[in-house]
């Protein structure tokens, strides 16, 4: 942060020193980067390859590396955006409540798929990371990756992973699901929007849900529902699954 | 004012959730408990107040934005990711595909078996 090579003029440097020490800059560049990324996303006809999370993260990392800024400096401002993940999680109760009548007819299939999905997500990521020689820390950071970020970070901390690494893995998982989901369903000839939505929400949380809403409102609603329910199921099942697998492996 | 009421209510539920989780030593994150409590409240009231609906819609319509600061956190983990890139990449990719495919197939099968339209005979419970 002390010597940004791009700013030779001492006057500019003073402004930079002031700005980089205040949270204003981190917050503003986050919103600007997302605004640009979202515009690009709309420009490409909402292509999943132009996912606004990927583009804005890449843009921001580029800017931070070029200006020699640290993540801590950036996060001093960006935490105000990050903080909203908490109330957003609480807000999931609203779509959950609005979809509840549909859920009532499908509660048994949804419950079974959800429990299986959450156990497969947690179990396969621990198992695969273990098989491929990943450290315990990496296995635990990966375990809750399919749950929405604030939940996954909380679980990661409880089971001995690195919460901030988990946050990154959660985002990467969501992007993977959003990119591959619709293609996978095409290959498997799954046409039911209910099944597609549940799978998207369980495997790829909010980023997958954002993608699901582009396919159809019904797929989006069920994906949102699955995301909210699986956040709860992951919090209950994954710590237990970790104990079980630790006893087995 | 309405938006303010809505966001305040969401924060109150989150706060109550966080405090309850800590007091009782529950294994779930505070906001998740907050979500469950808000859901139960809505069930009991039988409708969503306009203020809560507005605040929730505003937050959830830009859910992607809220992930960006955490995503940028990747730069703090470049070393770790570079060291263990193979298990991380493969486990993440394969596990996500597996979860997505398995969940969709299980949901499709169980819907066919268990959620048949009513009036198909009374042998369901026997």
TrEMBL record, chain B:
Keyword Ligase: no
GO cellular component: plasma membrane
Topology versus the membrane: Multi-pass membrane protein
UniProt key word Transmembrane helix: yes
Transmembrane portions of the chain: 20-44, 56-79, 85-107
Main location: membrane
Keyword annotations of the record: Cell membrane, Membrane, Transmembrane, Transmembrane helix
Annotated localization: Cell membrane
InterPro entries with a match to the protein in the record: LrgA/CidA
A Pfam family of this chain: LrgA
Protein name (Swiss-Prot/TrEMBL): CidA/LrgA family protein
Organism placement in taxonomy: Bacteria, Pseudomonadati, Pseudomonadota, Gammaproteobacteria, Pseudomonadales
């Amino acid at each position: 942060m002390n010597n940004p090579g791009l700013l030779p003029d001492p006057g500019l440097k003073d402004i930079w020193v002031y700005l980089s020490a205040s949270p204003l800059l981190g917050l503003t560049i986050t919103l600007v980067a997302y605004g640009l990324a979202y515009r690009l996303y709309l420009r490409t006809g909402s292509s999943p390859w132009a996912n606004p999370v990927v583009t804005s993260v890449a843009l921001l990392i580029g800017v931070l590396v070029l200006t020699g800024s640290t993540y801590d400096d950036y996060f001093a401002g960006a935490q105000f955006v990050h903080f909203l993940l908490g109330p957003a999680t609480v807000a999931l109760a609203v779509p959950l409540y609005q979809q509840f009548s549909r859920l009532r007819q499908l509660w048994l299939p949804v419950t079974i798929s959800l429990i299986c999905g959450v156990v497969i997500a947690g179990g396969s990521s621990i198992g695969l990371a273990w098989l491929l020689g990943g450290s315990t820390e990496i296995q635990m950071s990966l375990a809750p990756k399919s749950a929405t970020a604030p939940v996954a970070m909380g679980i990661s901390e409880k089971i001995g992973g690195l919460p901030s690494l988990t946050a990154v893995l959660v985002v990467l998982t969501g992007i993977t699901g959003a990119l591959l989901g619709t293609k996978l369903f095409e290959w498997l000839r799954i046409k039911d929007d209910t099944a597609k939505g549940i799978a998207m929400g369980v495997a790829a949380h909010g980023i997958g849900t954002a993608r699901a809403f582009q396919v159809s409102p019904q797929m989006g609603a069920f994906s949102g529902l699955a995301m909210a329910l699986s956040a709860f199921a992951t919090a209950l099942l994954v710590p237990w699954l970790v104990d079980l697998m630790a006893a087995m492996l | 004012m309405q938006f303010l009421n809505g966001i305040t209510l969401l924060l109150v539920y989150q706060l109550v959730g966080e405090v309850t989780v800590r007091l009782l030593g529950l294994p779930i994150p505070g906001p998740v408990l907050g979500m469950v409590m808000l859901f139960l409240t809505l069930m009991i009231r039988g409708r969503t107040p306009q203020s809560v609906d507005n605040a929730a819609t505003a937050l959830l319509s830009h859910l992607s934005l809220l992930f960006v600061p955490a995503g940028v956190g990747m730069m703090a983990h470049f070393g770790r990711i570079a060291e263990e890139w193979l298990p991380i990449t493969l486990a993440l990719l394969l596990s996500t595909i597996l979860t997505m495919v398995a969940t969709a197939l299980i949901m499709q099968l169980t819907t066919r078996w268990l959620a048949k339209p009513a009036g198909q005979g009374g042998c369901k419970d026997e």
